[in-house]
Specification:
It is built from two helices and twelve strands, in the order βββββββαββββαβ. It is mainly beta. A hairpin with a 5-residue loop joins strand 5 and strand 6.
Length: about 170
């Protein structure tokens, strides 16, 4: 069993890239793509983690990763984008931690609904009149098992001129 453990090396994760929307991100091969769609200029792609545990009914517990790209007016700053995005999330999303991150922001949020309690880690950036959000969500009890993985995956995000050309 000990030999099956490997160090996480984000630079070796497969690259998910979109040249039209000017982003790339590396996602571990164990995180499966679960959906992608676009409309009205907004693009969303989602991945699901491997099982992080099981609940009392023996259902597996997973985290999700969602990357959203949306068009912005040319003069939109990262502060404008962040404030509007948080406003749209609504009162159910409580910001626990807000820090600068890579020219944008990183937040940890606590979300309570009648059905579940979860934590989110969200990363916000802006480039070339587009807003980018990398959002991770996990049940509150599973969040500590995945948060470092979230940081590693988010660290691979490249946007706008960082993407370069192929």
């Amino acid at each position: 069993m000990e030999r099956s453990f490997t160090l996480e090396r984000p630079e070796t994760y497969p690259e998910v890239r979109n040249d039209k929307l000017r982003f790339s991100i590396r996602v571990p091969p164990s995180w499966r793509s679960s959906r992608s769609f676009s409309g009205g200029g907004t693009y969303l792609t989602q991945f699901t983690s491997p099982a992080l545990g099981a609940d009392r009914s023996r259902q597996t517990v997973h985290a999700s990763l969602t990357l959203t790209v949306e068009p912005l007016p040319a003069d939109t700053t990262v502060d404008d984008f962040y404030n509007e995005t948080v406003r749209k999330l609504g009162e159910a999303f409580k910001v626990l931690n807000h820090t600068p991150w890579n020219g944008g922001y990183s937040d940890v949020l606590w979300v309570e609904t009648p059905m579940a309690v979860s934590r989110n880690k969200r990363f916000y950036r802006v480039a070339e009149s587009r807003g980018y959000v990398v959002a991770f969500e996990a049940r509150d009890d599973a969040y500590p098992r995945v948060v470092k993985w979230c940081d590693m995956i988010a660290s691979t995000l490249k946007i706008g001129p960082e993407v370069g050309s192929r």
